[in-house]
C-alpha cells in the first residue's frame, strides 16, 4: 500500500502532485472510496460526514475529479457480506480517509476487518486527513488542550513505523502547538512528525518523503 498522510488534505500543488505520482495516472481515470467514519461520533457528525462525502469542504478530497466515487462506512461492514465490500476495496485506486475521532476510527478499522485487508493492497493509495493519517501509526498520540490530560497514547494500525501529529501550530488547534507536540512525542516510542496543514508525508515501500509548502518537524523518542 502507498500512503499520502496529510494534515488538512490536498491543499497545495505539491501535495496534489504527490497524489498524482502515487496514483500513476490522472485522477479522472481513478476510482476512489471515501471513509467518513471518524466524523460520526461528533455533535453534528452526520452533517460533517455529508460535507466530506459531497466535497463541500475547504479541501474536498472527493471533489478532485475522480472517475467514480463510493462511500465505505466502517460501522456497517460487520453486517455486510465480507466478499462484497472486500471486492469494492480491492478495485479502488484510492481510499480517502476523513479526519475526526482517531480512537473511534482505529476501533472501527479493526472491528470492520479493513485493518487486516489494508497491508495486502499493494497498489492502492491510502489518503488520510488528520485522524485518518494518525491512525496508520504503530502507536499514536493525541494532544488535548487540558492540563489534566495533555495527551493520550494508544496502539494504532502499524501501517507505517512512525507517528504523526497534524495541525501543528494552527491557530484553531491550540492543543497542537509545537511545544505540546514535543511533550507528547517524548512519550511515544517511535519517531513522531509534527506537520501543519500545508504538509503531507508520502510513503512508498517504507520510504518516507516529506511533501511540504509549510512547516514540519521530526521529534525523536
Task: Give a written overview of the molecule.
The protein is α/β, with parallel strands linked by helices and 221 residues long. The chain has a single domain, classed as Rossmann fold (3-Layer(aba) Sandwich), CATH 3.40.50.880. It is 26% helix and 25% strand. It contains seven helices and twelve strands. It has helices at residues 13-23, 45-54, 82-91, 102-112, 114-117, 131-134, 178-185, and strands at 2-6, 31-35, 68-71, 94-97, 125-129, 139-143, 151-155, 163-165, 192-195, 199-204, 207-212, 216-219. The strands form three sheets. Strands 3-2-4-5-1-10-11 form a seven-stranded mixed sheet, with helices on both faces. The chain is globular, with a radius of gyration of 16 Å. The model has no long low-confidence stretch (mean pLDDT 92).
CATH superfamily: Class I glutamine amidotransferase (GATase) domain
Structural class: alpha/beta
The CATH C-level name is Alpha Beta
Poorly predicted regions are none
Reported CATH architecture: 3-Layer(aba) Sandwich
Largest sheet: 7 strands, mixed
Shape: globular
Q: Level of helix content?
A: 25-40%
Radius of gyration: 16 Å
User: How do the strands line up in the largest sheet?
Assistant: 3-2-4-5-1-10-11
Q: What is the domain total for the residues?
A: 1
CATH domain topology: Rossmann fold
How much is the average pLDDT?
Answer: 92
User: How many DSSP E strands?
Assistant: 12
Q: What order do the helices and strands follow? A: EHEHEHEHHEHEEEHEEEE
Number of helices in the DSSP assignment: 7
Report strand %.
25-35%
Could you give the distance between the termini?
26 Å
Amino acid at each position: 500500500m502507498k500512503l499520502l498522510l496529510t494534515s488538512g488534505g490536498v491543499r497545495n500543488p505539491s501535495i496534489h502532485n504527490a497524489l498524482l505520482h502515487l496514483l500513476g495516472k490522472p485522477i479522472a481515470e481513478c476510482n476512489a472510496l471515501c471513509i467518513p467514519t471518524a466524523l460520526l461520533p461528533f455533535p453534528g457528525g452526520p452533517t460533517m460526514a455529508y460535507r466530506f462525502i459531497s466535497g463541500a469542504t475547504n479541501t474536498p478530497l472527493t471533489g478532485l475529479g475522480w472517475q467514480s466515487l463510493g462511500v465505505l462506512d466502517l460501522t456497517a461492514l460487520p453486517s455486510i457480506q465480507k466478499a462484497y465490500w472486500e471486492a469494492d476495496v480491492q478495485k479502488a485506486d484510492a481510499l480517502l480517509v476523513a479526519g475526526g475521532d482517531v480512537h473511534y476510527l482505529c476501533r472501527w478499522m479493526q472491528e470492520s476487518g479493513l485493518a487486516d485487508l489494508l497491508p495486502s493492497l499493494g497498489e492502492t493509495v491510502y489518503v488520510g486527513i488528520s485522524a485518518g493519517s494518525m491512525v496508520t501509526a504503530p502507536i499514536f498520540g493525541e494532544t488535548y488542550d487540558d492540563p489534566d490530560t495533555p495527551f493520550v497514547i494508544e496502539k494504532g494500525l502499524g501501517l507505517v513505523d512512525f507517528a504523526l501529529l497534524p495541525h501543528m501550530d494552527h491557530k484553531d488547534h491550540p492543543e497542537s502547538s509545537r511545544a505540546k507536540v514535543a511533550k507528547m512525542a517524548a512519550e511515544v516510542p517511535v519517531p513522531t512528525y509534527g506537520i501543519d496543514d500545508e504538509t503531507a508525508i508520502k510513503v512508498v515501500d517504507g520510504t518516507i518523503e516529506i511533501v511540504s509548502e509549510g512547516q514540519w518537524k521530526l521529534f525523536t523518542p
